[in-house]
Amino acid sequence: MKRIIEKYTTLKMNVEDEGTSQQVMVADHCIEQVTLNVFPSLRHRLCLWHLSKNANNRFGLLKSDKNFKNAFYKCLSGCITPNDFEETWKSMINTFKLEKDDWFNRLYGLKEKWCTTLSKDFLFAGILSSQRSESTNHVVGFKANKSTTLTEFYSIFQATINRWRKTEEKDDFDCTRGIPTSELSVSAILKHAANVYTITLFREFEEEFKLSVGSSAKFKGSVGRTVFFEVWIEGITGSRKEVQFKMEDSTVTCTCKNFEESGWLCFHCLRILHLHSINTILDRYITTKWTRYAKKQIWERVDTIKREKGEINNFTGWRLHMIRRYYNLILKGHKIANARKFIEEKFKTDNKAVDEIIKKEEERKEKEEAAKIAE
Q1: How wide is the angle at C-alpha 25 spanned by C-alphas 22 and 26, nearest 5°?
Q2: Which of 16, 102, 211, 238 could disulfide-pair with 267, CB 3.0 to 4.6 Å?
Q3: CA–CA–CA angle 18, 20, 25 (5° rounding)
C-alpha cells in the first residue's frame, strides 16, 4: 500500500513539472483510488505547500502582480465562507483573464481537496494540509543531508523516535497525575474541561474560553425553540459568525465549524452556552481522542468487542490488564540500571513462587482424583 502511494505520488510530482494536464489528472486519480480502497472514509487532500510551490511555475507574468497573488492565496486558505471563496475565485479569474486557462480550470475542479473553507465539515484534528514543516521529513531533515550515510540517518531517526516517545510518556504521566491550572478565574465549564481534556487540549480550549469572554453577542431572531445569534470580537476581521442554539436539547452549531474540523468548541459557541447558563461541556461535544483517558477507553472498548464475539474468556481481561501494568512498569524503569536489575531479580523470585503454587495445585488435584478412584 505504502509503496503504491509513493509510486503514484512521485509520478504526480514529475508530471506536474514536465507532463501534460491529463497526466497529472491520471496521477491524482490513481493516488485517490488506491487510498480510498484501503481507507473508504478517508478525505483525500492536496498539500497546500506543494500546491503553492507548483502554482508559482504557472503564474507567468502574474507572478509579480501582488493583487493577483493576494487573491490566489486568499482562495487557498483565507476565505471565510464557501460564498466568499466562490466570489473571490470568480473575481480573480475575470480580472486576470484566466477563463480559458486549463491549469486554473482543473484546479477549480479539485477545489474540495485544497480549499480550507470547503473542508470544515470533516474532523482533521487541527492538522493542516500545509503542515510540511512539522512532518517527519522536516524533523530529521535539519540533521541529515544528501551526504548522510544510512547508518548515520538511522541513528538520527532513532533518536527522534526516542524523543517523541519520551515526550508522550511524560504527557501521559502528567495527564493522569494532575489537573491543569489556569490564570483565569476557573468557571464551571473551564473546570469541567480541565478534568476531561488532556493538558495540551485544555490549553487550546482555554484560549477559546478567553476569546469568548471578550466577545460580543447579538440576538438575530428565532424559529420555534431555535434561536440565532451573531458573535464576534471587536477589531478582528472575519470573527463575526452566526450561532444556532436549540433550546430543547442545548444543541449549538456555528458557521465557523471549528468543532466539526478540530473537535473542540469555538469561542462563538462557548459565548452562547454561557448566555444560557450551561456550565458543563455536553457529551456530544467531547471528542474521545482529546480526553485524558482516551487510551484506557480504547482498551476497554477492544475488550468489550472481543467478549461479545466470544474471543475473550474469563481470564483474558485480567491477563491483558496485568500485561499492560507490567509493560508500564518496564517502561518506567528501563533506563535506570538499578531498576532493571530489581525487576529482573523480582521476576526470578516471582517465577519460582508461581512454579511452587502450580506444583502444589497439581498435587492437590492428583490426590482428589486418587481419592475418587479409591471410592
Answers
A1: 90
A2: 211
A3: 115
